[in-house]
Amino acid sequence: MKSTHAILMVACMALLLIAGCRKPNNNRTTDINTGPISTGGQPATFPGGSQTSLNQLFKDLRYTPEVKCVTAGILQVVTFSKGTRLTFYPNSFKNAAGATITSGTVCIEMIEMYKPGDMISNMATTTTSTDLLRSGGQVHINATKDGQKVYANKYGIAFKQPAPSTLPMELFYGNTNNKDSVVTWGFTGGGLPGTTAAGTTLDTVTFISYNIFDSCTNFNFINCDVLADRGPRAQINIVLADTIYKNLRTRVFIVLPSVNAVATPCRYVPATNTFELGGADVWHGVPVGMPISIIVMSKIEDKFYYFEQTGLPAVDGMTVTANLTNQSLDYIKAKLAGL
User: Fold this and answer.
1) What is the pTM of this model?
2) Residue 312 domain-assigned?
3) Residues 144-161: pLDDT tens digits?
């Protein structure tokens, strides 16, 4: 099986599924992998000859959506358990043909991701294809009516914030063209009315601060973000200590708690079993001096492996060796919840 050798710089944040030749299944099977992380490639081959995507591999970490149903054609406000508030207008919904839906019940499936652990569990980072974002929260929304997918004309979305802020925020939509990628983000564009927030707005009834956007036109991944500071960036190298862990079965995340951000490496170097973030892809690096945590997860057959190191200052050229240990799914979920 051929492996890809081209580095796709614009898709740096997507973790790659690269095909590899493998030896017969033993207690410690190995993948022979070459090439960079990219948006393309074939799914990994696992014991028994089946092909399994990385997203499928880590599906047990994903959250179960919260469901709330509304009536199309009228003004309604719904609030979800972590505080995200959606405002639906009389013309908010449309069908696949583009016709506005003005009656009937529309059910909204919501996953809220306000902390780095939420984002990692649902395989969503806070990066565009070229830059690092500071997040005020992100969500995934799916809408259906009578079992059919529903699309958005325009609706309002408010992201609950822990405290008042004057930091301007913008709407970003997720790029999910590749089912095996972590989510990367694209700006809604041009500071259009309703897609930017100059700062938080205080709800005078609940005294909760929100970043409010009146014109969201997408159901899928939606993020409240601002571009991170473009200061000096550090290249970070994460070496997997044991060769049983390969990019075909492993996810690596860099958490930046001070800006509520999560990044993932751009490249995998098979010769050294190393994931790299930064380097030539300057804006994908981590701001120098910023505290970071490194999370590595792998799944081999039915077993999970985990590594976490917290409180590291980002230093250019730093190398961290990840010694993963076998852990239960509940253990990993608890660790991610604490990030």
Assistant:
1) 0.83
2) yes
3) 999 999 999 999 999 999
